[in-house]
């Protein structure tokens, strides 16, 4: 069950990242984040009311609040790092956030077998290579590296926190709702500050018309991201966190394959090799 839900997480996160990347070509990144997460809040709110999940409220929800606070910071750091570039370095480095939940699992006493340890190592190397690291070219700014590491450990922290936010399915609905409300509150505040400083909240061409047209895509991105958090929490609760985290972090492979299939982007040799290693590592994790 752990492997199944973790792989579902990778699929959902990979597709959400691909969709979000396409949307940010047409609208400001922060607007995409706030709009997509607002849709997720509405849907999750309806689910919470329908299932009576409010009864699951308790101290564990603070983990969800923390995840909701860390998430926007990590995302903004990631977008800023991408802007500084080069993307071929930033993207693979960001996937190193898997270290956080893996370390948490080890600290909690988890001890994967030798084959699974090998699978972790192979999969992590594969994920990094799948991002297409630029081994030559322009030097990387220290600020870009620092921001990337902040985003990586932030994303890893969200994974670790959301796994601790609930112990039941209805409790998970409530935890995800609280997390997204926090996301929207902080993201909305950041967007307001950006606008006051002269930034844009709407696309330059088309304005609100473009956002309305993109509503289905925004809904998909927001809901896929929420669903990924949910499947990861279930995976982490039903098996070793280290294995769940590494399998879930195969999402860059999904994003790269989606770009290949939809946008006809050609995979570089290092990306193809990384995808192969990531899949090989996942097989070792599942069968070890």
TrEMBL record:
It comes from the Bacteria. Keywords: Membrane, Transmembrane, Transmembrane helix. Residues 3-130, 144-286 form the EamA domain. The chain crosses the membrane at residues 6-23, 30-55, 61-82, 89-108, 114-132, 144-163, 169-193, 214-235, 241-262. The keyword Transcription does not apply. InterPro entries: EamA_dom, EmrE-like. Belongs to the EamA transporter family. This is EamA family transporter. It comes from Streptomyces coeruleoprunus.
């Amino acid at each position: 069950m752990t492997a199944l839900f973790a792989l579902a997480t990778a699929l959902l996160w990979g597709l959400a990242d691909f969709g979000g990347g396409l949307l940010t070509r047409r609208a400001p990144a922060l607007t995409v984040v706030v709009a997509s997460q607002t849709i997720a809040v509405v849907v999750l709110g309806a689910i919470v009311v329908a299932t009576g999940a409010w009864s699951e409220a308790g101290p564990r929800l603070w983990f969800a609040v923390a995840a909701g606070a860390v998430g926007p910071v990590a995302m903004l750091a990631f977008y800023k790092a991408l802007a500084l570039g080069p993307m071929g370095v930033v993207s693979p480095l960001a996937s190193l956030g898997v270290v956080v939940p893996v370390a948490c699992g080890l600290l909690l006493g988890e001890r994967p077998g030798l084959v699974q340890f090998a699978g972790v190592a192979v999969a992590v190397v594969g994920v990094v290579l799948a991002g297409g690291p630029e081994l030559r070219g322009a030097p990387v700014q220290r600020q870009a590296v620092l921001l990337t590491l902040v985003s990586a450990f932030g994303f890893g922290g969200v994974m670790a926190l959301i796994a601790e936010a609930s112990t039941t399915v209805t409790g998970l609905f409530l935890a995800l709702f609280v997390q997204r409300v926090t996301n929207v509150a902080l993201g909305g505040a950041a967007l307001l500050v950006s606008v006051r400083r002269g930034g844009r909240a709407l696309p330059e061409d088309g304005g609100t018309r473009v956002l309305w047209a993109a509503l289905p895509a925004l809904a998909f991105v927001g809901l896929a991201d929420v669903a990924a958090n949910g499947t990861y929490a279930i995976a982490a609760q039903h098996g070793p966190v280290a294995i769940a985290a590494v399998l879930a972090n195969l999402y860059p492979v999904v994003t790269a394959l989606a770009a290949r299939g939809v946008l006809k982007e050609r995979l570089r040799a290092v990306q193809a090799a990384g995808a192969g290693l990531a899949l090989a590592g996942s097989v070792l994790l599942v069968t070890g």
